[in-house]
Amino acid sequence: TVMAAQMTDAHRRFLQVLMSNGITEGSEARKLHQHCCETDKVYYAHDKLDDFISTINSHLQPLFMQIRKGISEDNGRAHYAVVNLAETEVTKMASDYTEMELELFRKTMDLIILSENGFASSTDILNLADQLKTKKMKKKEAEQVLKVFVEDKWLSEKNGEYTLHTRCIIEMEQYILSNYQDVARKCNICHSLAIQSQVCESCGIGMHLPCVRKYFRGQTEPRCPKCNEFW
């Protein structure tokens, strides 16, 4: 077996920042890579971020953790998050939230994943709040909890519509794919989980909006990559 490259202080610093951020945008991660190498006087190559990360990952493996790369569904930009592989489903969140809050989160996730476009309106979510099994939640209280989920980067919100934050998608991809087998879609272009997607009316495949834009760029008439129907 190939010996894993050594972890240096630069790698440790990078991991620490990534963990405290929860999620880091690609351009920020590249800046951080340079900063860590320069601060700790470690050889820096601007095009070697992935190698740098895989060194960290080989040392995280025995701890059942991994830095994963994912794509923002809004703009198609790369993001990095530290994922705990040992904790399935929402257990990672269990240390931070009450059982009642977690139930609201699960129900919100249901709404988002079962929706057509990957969004759930605050009205629909708040209507669920007083049907919780754990304990009914008042609307005011539920609004507060949703706000915290947005601050903690599990949900993101636009004009009263909620969707899963990129961090949540990266961390929970496996959970979502195994728990929503019939409805969870993978993007036909990038093959990662697609929550917000456009769906082909004929054959039902889904694609992320940024992937759709890239895929159809320069084509005179957009046709479905699977069934060739007009998109």
Automatic annotation (TrEMBL):
The function of this protein is:
RING-type zinc finger-containing E3 ubiquitin ligase that assembles with melanoma antigen protein (MAGE) to catalyze the direct transfer of ubiquitin from E2 ubiquitin-conjugating enzyme to a specific substrate. Involved in maintenance of genome integrity, DNA damage response and DNA repair.
Name the top EC class.
transferase
Q: What is the lineage of its organism?
A: Eukaryota, Metazoa, Chordata, Craniata, Vertebrata
Q: Does the record carry Zinc as a key word?
A: yes
- Which PANTHER family would you find in this protein's record? NON-SMC ELEMENT 1-RELATED (PTHR20973), NON-STRUCTURAL MAINTENANCE OF CHROMOSOMES ELEMENT 1 HOMOLOG (PTHR20973:SF0)
Q: Which reaction does it catalyse?
A: S-ubiquitinyl-[E2 ubiquitin-conjugating enzyme]-L-cysteine + [acceptor protein]-L-lysine = [E2 ubiquitin-conjugating enzyme]-L-cysteine + N(6)-ubiquitinyl-[acceptor protein]-L-lysine
Give the CC-aspect GO terms. Answer: chromosome, telomeric region; nucleus; Smc5-Smc6 complex
Quaternary arrangement and interactors, per the entry? Component of the Smc5-Smc6 complex.
Under Enzyme Commission nomenclature, its number is 2.3.2.27
Q: Does the keyword Metal-binding apply?
A: yes
Species name for this entry? Helopsaltes ochotensis
Q: What is its main location?
A: nucleus
List where in the cell it is found.
Chromosome, Telomere; Nucleus
Family note: Belongs to the NSE1 family.
Q: Name one Pfam family in it.
A: zf-RING-like
* Residue ranges of domain RING-type in the record: 187-228
Q: Which GO terms describe its molecular function?
A: ubiquitin protein ligase activity; zinc ion binding
Q: Which UniProt keywords apply?
A: Chromosome, DNA damage, DNA recombination, DNA repair, Metal-binding, Nucleus, Telomere, Transferase, Ubl conjugation pathway, Zinc, Zinc-finger
* GO biological process terms, semicolon-separated: double-strand break repair via homologous recombination
Identification of the protein by name: Non-structural maintenance of chromosomes element 1 homolog
